[in-house]
């Protein structure tokens, strides 16, 4: 069964020592492509470096809401320069996070809006972070008239998922689906053609790997849970999410 990890942070310090082994284990587990996500200038640069080295890794560049109060003053220009690299497939991770108090909400909104505009100008998809900010997030996306984005690590309800899908966005699910029961209703009801799968590694390890560092090789556990909840074959989930992810990020098919 072939798989794509649509959102991972293998540019994180936790992978510095054994990155080659991590990518090797992912390949052995059937993961044919991985999207390495940038969250600030440094991690975006590192994501590009990794994508340069490994043919099955692609990169994004962006400013995470946790870092929105401290980016380089020329961050939009820097992200635009990064975007010219052939392995950069999206802008982000960007968005809003009202759970933690790492950045002022007003600044988060400004940086989010600016990155959405950049993604539109570059005709690249937007990778969006959302935590306890549904209303503001949706309003900003609507005002920006964005129709090519994914809300990663989806953790809201089916009503919000459908609102996003109705305006053209996708949603992506992590290992949380294996242990957060409130997401089961979303999985059961959502259109499978509008979802992607991700590990968000090194975070949110799925069962039975809870308590361990997460890595792309574990993405199959998410597929199996979605297949069980939707009462369809895991291979069907894998094939549909691969097709959706490749189309969304404009990835090569071989």
Provide structural commentary.
It is a single chain. By secondary structure, the protein is of the alpha/beta class. It has one domain: Metal-dependent hydrolases (TIM Barrel, Alpha-Beta Barrel), CATH 3.20.20. The chain has nine helices and eight strands. An eight-stranded parallel beta sheet has the order 1-2-3-4-5-6-7-8. It is globular and about 45 Å long. It starts with a strand and ends in a 5-residue tail after the last helix.
Radius of gyration: 17 Å
Fourth-level CATH superfamily = Metal-dependent hydrolases
How do the SSEs run, as a string of H and E? EHEHEHEHEHEHEHEHH
Tell me how many strands there are.
8
- Tell the overall outline: globular
Write the layout of secondary structure elements.
Blueprint: E1 3-8, H1 19-28, E2 31-36, H2 41-53, E3 57-61, H3 75-83, E4 88-97, H4 105-122, E5 126-131, H5 134-144, E6 149-151, H6 158-166, E7 170-173, H7 182-189, E8 195-197, H8 219-230, H9 234-249
């Amino acid at each position: 069964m072939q798989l794509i990890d649509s959102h991972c942070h293998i540019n994180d310090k936790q992978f510095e020592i054994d990155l080659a082994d991590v990518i090797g284990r992912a390949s052995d587990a059937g993961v044919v492509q991985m999207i390495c996500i940038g969250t600030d200038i440094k991690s975006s640069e590192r994501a590009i470096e990794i994508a340069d080295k490994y043919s099955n890794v692609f990169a994004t560049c962006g400013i995470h809401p946790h870092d929105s109060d401290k980016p380089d003053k020329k961050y939009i220009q820097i992200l635009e320069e990064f975007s010219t690299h052939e392995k950069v497939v999206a802008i982000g991770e960007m968005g809003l996070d009202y759970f933690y108090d790492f950045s002022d909400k007003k600044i988060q909104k400004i940086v989010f809006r600016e990155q959405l505009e950049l993604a539109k100008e570059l005709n690249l998809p937007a990778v969006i972070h959302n935590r306890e900010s549904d209303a503001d997030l949706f309003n900003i996306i609507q005002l920006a008239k964005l129709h090519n984005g994914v809300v990663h690590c989806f953790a809201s309800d089916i009503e919000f998922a459908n609102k996003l899908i109705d305006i053209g966005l996708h949603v992506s699910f992590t290992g949380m689906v294996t242990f957060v029961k409130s997401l089961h209703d979303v999985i059961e009801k959502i259109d499978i053609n509008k979802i992607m799968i991700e590990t968000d590694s090194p975070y949110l390890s799925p069962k039975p790997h809870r308590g361990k560092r997460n890595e792309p090789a574990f993405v199959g556990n998410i597929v199996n849970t979605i297949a069980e909840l939707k009462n369809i074959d895991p291979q069907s989930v894998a094939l549909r999410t691969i097709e959706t992810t490749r189309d969304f990020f404009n990835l090569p098919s071989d």
